Amino acid sequence: MNTPAIDQTKLEAFVAQAVGDLSSGYGGVMVSLGSKLGLYKALADAGPLSAGELASRTGCAERYVGEWLNAQAAGGYVGYHAVSDTYELSPEQAMVLADEDSPVFIPHAWQVPASMWFDEERTLDAFRTGKGVAWGEHDGRLQCGVAAFYRNGYRASLVPEWLPALEGVVEQLEAGITVADVGCGHGHSTVLMAKAFPRSRFHGFDAHAASIDAARRNAEAAGVADHVSFELTQAVDYPDRQYGLICFFDCLHDMGDPIAAARYAEQVLAPDGTVLLVEPYAQDKVENNLSTVSRMYYSASTTICCAHAISEGGQLVLGAQAGEARLAEVFRKAGFSHFRRAAETPFNLILEARR
User: Fold this and answer.
1) Number of domains in the chain
2) For tag attachment on the chain, is the N or C end more exposed, with fewer CB atoms within 10 Å?
3) % of residues, the chain, pLDDT over 90
4) Which letter does DSSP use for residue 49 in this model?
5) Which is nearest to 310 in space by CA: 86, 137, 94?
6) Of 66, 98, 130, at which residue does a domain stop?
7) Confidence (pLDDT) at 3
8) With contact defined as beta carbons under 8 Å apart, do 73 and 30 qualify?
9) Residue 340 belongs to what domain range?
10) Is the alpha carbon torsion for 156, 157, 158, 160 positive or negative?
11) Cα Rg for the chain, rounded, in angstroms?
């Protein structure tokens, strides 16, 4: 058997890449700790601080804080001043790590890979048997992490950018229509729209009971419960109210039969209604999706999205990198004649469908 020749330069480069990825995984644990302990917020509020000063402000032990700070400095997550032996966050770092309302706030997202590790045995079994793993069967950090991470992105873009990109929909919402938010999760998207358009009525639907409970609490806290409701139901049997707008936010690709979900939406849509489909950004071919963001989406899709679709029967397992062409085909088969890309971000495709 011939042993292929090893290119030492390529080997060293790939080892460095793999170690960098491993370091990032360690770093994610540090990000979660720093967020939950208030370390980032204290740094953002006070400017350069020593380890002792940060420990005092946050009620933490100095020796742990000092080691954490050095890990952050080594990763480029905080700045270090050797002369004064102090650390600080730049304004840009603070937006990502300390400002919970920022559209680029990242710490909550680390709960997702934490849940992926926790659920490893389920995933190993799924690989070996072909069985699915339902959304509600995952560790609870998955649902909380996804909801918190997407909330800020939706807050930044949904009302000011995505809805105006749809033809005539903002005017309808302002006048008052009935809206369905299918796969609403914790209801952040539903609540954002309800706050912006008080004359419309919003109904959130999800198959995960704990998420529906969280959504109801979020609506109450936001003061919009008078024109928002949430119901535990599937994407193919929620009440027919002839909706002026039906939304699928980052969820259609998780469904076991997305064509059936789109077909049902066509049936319960008002004559002049619109479907808003928000999906993870992807090109149509694998060779065009070989990027850092696509790696993240494919990985989550392996353990979460595909697994849930298979748990629902897996008639068509789209995955989180379906691409516009496959999504358009879903809606064509469901009876829609109009389908277009209304907007896009580095993370999402915003698509519009009509009869």
Assistant:
1) 2
2) N
3) 96
4) B
5) 137
6) 98
7) 77
8) no
9) 110-354
10) positive
11) 23
pLDDT at 1 over 70: no
The two tokens of residue 264 are: 């049902």
3-state helix vs strand vs coil in the chain, percent to 5: 55, 15, 30
Q: Could you tell me if 154 and 342 are in contact, meaning their C-beta atoms sit under 8 angstroms apart?
A: no
Classify the C-alpha dihedral 180-182-183-188 as positive or negative.
Answer: negative
Query: What pLDDT shows up at residue 150?
Result: 86
User: Which amino acid is residue 244, in one-letter code?
Assistant: G
pTM score, whole prediction: 0.92
Q: Please, what is the average pLDDT of the chain?
A: 96
Q: Which residue has the tokens 């989406």?
A: 297
What CATH number did the domain enclosing 48 receive? 1.10.10.10
Residue with tokens 């799924």: 126
